[in-house]
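Input.
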Amino acid sequence: MRRLRILFYWLFYTKNNIIFVELIKYLLKPKVDKVAKRYIKKILLNNNFFEITFNNISKKLFWPIKFSVEGINQVTAETFDNEDWHYYRYKHTEVEDGDIILDIGTAEGLFPLVVIDKCEHIYMVEPSSVFCEALKKTFSEYEKKTTIFNNAAGSIDEEVYFNEDSLAGQISNDKKGETKIRLRKIDTLLTDKRITFIKADIEGFEQEMLLGAENIIKKNKPKIAITTYHKENNPVDIINLIKSYVPEYNYFIKGIHGEEPKPVMIHFWI
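Output.
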């Protein structure tokens, strides 16, 4: 049904820079678990983590046993398949030597793991303490090149509740979530830091995060790769907000989400 909806949206609503050939490739593409198998070499149980090795990189990724290991399939496809509409390193938002990355919504950390050798430093912002423990293990050899913040990112600084039982993770102002965590503006977390690349996927809180990252974006003018398909987001508002900070930004929308005709990603660059 999802692929039929995407075909319908492409025909009657918007193409979001998807040409006909790309659409056909997507409609005929194997399911995500089969795509992931091209890249995943082995998955082993290692104490409280699944230890994942890949065919195309030598580094190991650690995934919390609290979450089904099947969850790695989606992020593997998004990280390695450059034809995936969720791919972050698209054209003008490629990771270059010496980049200083701010990864907001790091989760398992596959994206920073793949690019870390190119980067001067990577700042990771992840609200899940479960994923943060896995990140510490994955990046144990890169302590000097990485900083992990166990925070949520938003438009204000306050305390919120976070649902640690959800793989997607949701924050709220009531006690539905089990864990109380710090919600912080990016401008608060990284006041004087230089940032050259922002990657963000935070389950519909992208626009709220951007409201709290005004100074960082104005000062650094980083490349930005941000998801916009969550129901809480309005892609037009996100474009207008970022260009209000830095009018000279170029941008490129990509992909069609299956639930509604929103772009999957927007890429910004100077």
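The domain at 2-269 is CATH 3.40.50.150 (Rossmann fold).
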